[in-house]
Give the backbone structure.
Amino acid sequence: MMPDQYFQMTNKETLTLPKSALIAFLTLSTAMTASAFAQEAPAAPAATTPAAPAEAAPAATEMTPEQIAAFNTAVTDFTAGQSAQQSGDNATAVAKYEAAIPAIKTAVESDPSKMDNVNFLANALYANAAAYGAMGQLDKTIALYGESLPHWRKVVEAKPTDAASRNILAGILIQMGNQKLGAQDKAGSAPLYSEALTLARKSVAENASDNISKNILLSALIGASQSTSDTALQAEAVEMSKKMLADGSVDATNKPSAQALTGAPQAG
């Protein structure tokens, strides 16, 4: 854990926030592949509501000493949750994250413009989703992904050069798209994959040698190619699969889907 950063409040109480709460569970973020859900031929999507544009933030309200104390306790709980999660004790991690999240939400509600707190909330929800996912409770994972989504969008908008946050957001969108695709909701999955594609393309454009970004882009392409009738996307998914299989950069999660798309032999 990195050193704490302190934020002085107007009532002289001290609000403590981890300087870095970013948790890069990108393996989990791409763990549920589109191919595991998609069973039918692609269909054209219906129009759905895009991500809402950012609105003017409401005026900040001063946190009470009790709320600040609760927030500082939440930092301790979050840190304990990270330690438990890293040791494989996901049940304890969930308990610690769920103890921490209400106070972090209060801090965000009191001042939605304070991006440190928004980032902290996004990460706490994401970490909780990861812990539930490790325990096989994927319904809770997807619900937490959905709850974290607007916060991650704000973080990525505020930090356009932060590739790690951008990739986490893309991974979340892909998993939510996969869940809808698994329920044969192609119309609902298509805009999620489309948003993920935009983010992943930016990451790959910035660093074409980064295998994490390339695999996130491939995951988005595989999902998008199954949720729409866009032949250009389908061809791009096949071509990228061929290249990544050839150079060995495809990860274990994407490899079966890439092999299926290209007709490459799969291990028995």
Observations:
- The chain has eleven helices and two strands.
- The chain has one domain: 9-39+64-262.
- Strands lie at 4-8, 14-18.
- The chain has a mean pLDDT of 83.
